[in-house]
Amino acid sequence: MANNSDAALQAKIAGYVDILAKDPHSTVFVSLSDAYRQLGRLDEALDIARKGMQGLPWFSPGHVVLGQILMARGETGEALGCFNKALTLDGESIAAFKGLAAIYSQKGQTDIARQVLERAEQIHPGNSSIQHMLNRLSDVATPEPDLEPEPKTVVPKAEDIQPADAPIATTTIAELFVKQGLLSQACQVYRDILQANPDNAEVRIKLIELEGRLSADSQVEAVVEQEPLAVTTAEAEPLATLQRWLTAVRLRREHVQKDSAGHR
């Protein structure tokens, strides 16, 4: 069965190579590199995917297949950046969402993996492959990647491409953590993004802001813990003096009022 499958892939590869020979800018490079990935020929798959992306950097499925190849090579940091880029170009890419979830699952961050998949399920309700991965997250601590190649030979129309500021799954998860008050977890997500893409200035700014908030919160907590002590020592005498002064003023007013009443 395996030999028959390999033979079928080899036949497809021959067809894809012919297409690329006639049109070096064809999106069929995605199918070709994925076929090599399935055969375990990862060096050839990576070379073809990188060359294809040089001419078509806007093509989201190309970033997805590149991420899948890098995952197979164990280069999860760079794969994370590829899946993020794919979602920047196409905010509804199921394969990119699943790739991100697989990476976080492998890292043992199953909560983040689950939230990535739940985000994908909101966009694609009822999708069986997303539900399958969610079920596996509940049953297995670190499920194996369950990635499906996207359609690769169809060039998307310009109106179908999401704008550059389309939501990225990992930043979406970080923002969810911030809304829940889980600043430390949000910082960790941003650090993961920066590890894959150190030049992401927007994420770096957000991380700096969050780390500043965490530092400020720690200082406030320290001050709050010390405040009761300060009131009972340094401020105790001034408060007592003020209270005695107010009492004296009240008594003086009462005395003046009595004297005034007696002279009427």
TrEMBL record:
SUPFAM superfamilies: TPR-like (SSF48452). The keyword Disulfide bond does not apply. TPR repeats lie at residues 60-93, 94-127. InterPro entries: CellSynth/LPSAsmb/PSIAsmb, TPR-4, TPR-like_helical_dom_sf, TPR_rpt. Keywords: Repeat, TPR repeat. GO terms for molecular function: identical protein binding. This is Uncharacterized protein. The lineage of its organism: Bacteria, Pseudomonadati, Thermodesulfobacteriota, Desulfuromonadia, Desulfuromonadales.
